[in-house]
Design brief:
By secondary structure, the chain is of the alpha+beta class. The chain has one domain. About 20% of the residues lie in helices and about 20% in strands. It is built from 5 helices and 10 strands; from the N terminus they run αβαααβββββββββα. It starts with a helix and ends in a 5-residue tail after the last helix.
Length: about 300
């Protein structure tokens, strides 16, 4: 394994640990941006919720960027929702049965039931796509590429690609075939960009704590650019099969990264291709890091 690759793996491991424990760094912010003019309808650029100086590389969510999950308060679940929730085994959060978990009864149980990564059922930990809600709350950067008829969201973590159609089509209600990222349409409501997503594959999780959704979920995202380098987002899930009432996220904030902020050790500028490739995941991470940490020896 190259030194660069070892560094990348270690950064991911340490970043995941800090994220699981709620590490919250200070979001990189340039005071010179405070008075810069900006177009409230221009969402283009690279945006991050990361608290590290460069705005990327694992680690904690910035202090003013919102809760590290979807939302701390969870509405009551239906019987179907509770069954799906109980079946999901996350590796993020406080360890199940630990003194740390017992010391925080104010937190929803979803954040106090983590198992070692070698024993989880997290679809993304096995290199499947995260789906929209989970990708949007993760700390690493997201690039918004604005085209005349669509916005392409590119997520660094997992290198996921999502299309938000802005060509005037309406939301696709009750689609025949669910997709990992669903079917998304966007429109402007004043200075708020509203995205409606349907047909998200129910194998994805709402967030890293294993909260479920059904394929009938209707997700609404509301984006507002409130400063030159600040983008705000709230999301609302309507999924009567799983939750007894709509579930609105806490406010999430992103900071805009200036061009060439992210560079490789070779000086190549642009978001990192942080792909979860099964071959690399098994040979370079699971066998050497994850499984030994969970007590599994090959």
């Amino acid at each position: 394994m190259s030194k660069a690759l070892i560094g990348t793996v270690l950064a991911c491991v340490l970043g995941s640990a800090a994220y699981a424990q709620g590490g919250r760094g200070i979001l990189a912010h340039n005071p010179a941006n405070e008075n810069k003019p900006y177009d409230k309808h221009d969402l283009a650029g690279i945006w991050t919720r990361n608290g590290s100086p460069g705005g990327y590389g694992g680690g904690g969510t910035c202090r003013d960027c919102g809760d590290r999950g979807y939302a701390a308060k969870v509405p009551p679940m239906t019987a179907m929702g509770k069954k799906m929730f109980d079946a999901n085994k996350p590796s993020y959060g406080r360890l199940l049965g630990s003194a740390d978990a017992a010391a925080h009864p104010e937190e929803d149980i979803g954040r106090r039931r983590a198992v070692p990564p070698a024993n989880d059922s997290d679809p993304y930990q096995h290199c499947n796509p995260m789906g929209p809600t989970r990708a949007l709350i993760y700390v690493d950067p997201m690039e918004m590429n604005v085209l005349p008829d669509r916005i392409i969201q590119q997520f660094e973590w997992g290198w996921g690609t999502r299309i938000l159609w802005t060509d005037g089509r309406g939301p696709l209600m009750d689609p025949d075939l669910p997709r990992w990222w669903g079917y998304s349409t966007g429109r402007w409501d004043g200075d708020t960009f509203v995205v409606t997503t349907t047909g998200v594959d129910d194998r994805t999780w709402v967030d890293q704590y294993g909260y479920p959704h059904s394929a009938d979920m209707v997700l609404e995202e509301r984006y507002r650019r409130t400063a030159y380098d600040v983008l705000e987002l709230t999301m609302t899930i309507n999924d009567p099969k799983i939750y007894t009432q709509p579930w609105t996220s806490e406010l999430k904030k992103f900071r805009r990264l200036e061009k060439n902020t992210i560079k490789t050790v070779d000086g190549w500028a642009g978001m990192l291709e942080d792909v979860c490739a099964p071959a690399d995941e098994v040979d370079l991470f699971n066998k050497r890091v994850r499984d030994p940490a969970g007590g599994v020896i090959h």
